[in-house]
Amino acid sequence: MIRIAAVADVHLGTDSAGTLSPHLSQLGDRADLLCIGGDLTRHGEPEEAAVLAGELRDVAVPVVCVLGNHDYDADSEDLVRKELEEAGVTVLEGERVVLDINGRSVGVAGTKGFGGGFPGAAASDFGEPEMKAFVRHSRRLAESLEEQLEGLDSDVKIALTHFSPVEETLQGERLEIYPFLGCYLLAEAIDRGGAHLALHGHAHSGTEKGRTPGGVPVRNVAQPVIRHAYNVYCVGSGDDDPTCEPAPS
Ligand SMILES: [Fe+2]
Ligand SMILES: [Fe+2]
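Above: inputs. Below: predicted complex with fe (ii) ion.
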């Protein structure tokens, strides 16, 4: 059994030093890795990423993350990534990583993902170039996720995104903004590529639990949703519904 600590939307600012690290000091006793599903910062400033890097530097388990839309806001996503990588954090965008955890291989495929909506209310690759660019960006990132999941032959496979692959975990958000919160193409990618667990954030007012049409458990781990520093999901025990332990309050 692999214990995956997960959170998203921590939105650290330059004044956030010391807010996260106290909650992560015992993580090595509780989990085997930490996945963070984007919106690591408020505005994607490298100085904000440096604060997060400091919070994560002494975490006792491997840390894997994707960036979120906030982390692109300052057009400095490459510097955000660099700050985190210098602290030993793995940042995925259309990429995958395989970790050896207690003799078992755990693969994480990650992308920010993008919006576009869900069947019956989805944007289409039609009309103005801006709309085509929107939909093509979403499709390209979903395709990269599928390719990376397919490339994993690990014992445990995790899909990590910022945007949501399903509507179910958006419940609580205004219906009108669903197309800006996620896209069905991500769920298709996850189902075709295969995963034991899909983690995402972005929908601060959404719902924790969902499932792709193909049956992969989806968890919205946005911090305002899980209301803890992280949740720990146990996968690989044969049960297809990951059990969950919240972090101590
Ligand atoms: Fe967020
Ligand atoms: Fe977001």
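The chain has a mean pLDDT of 96.
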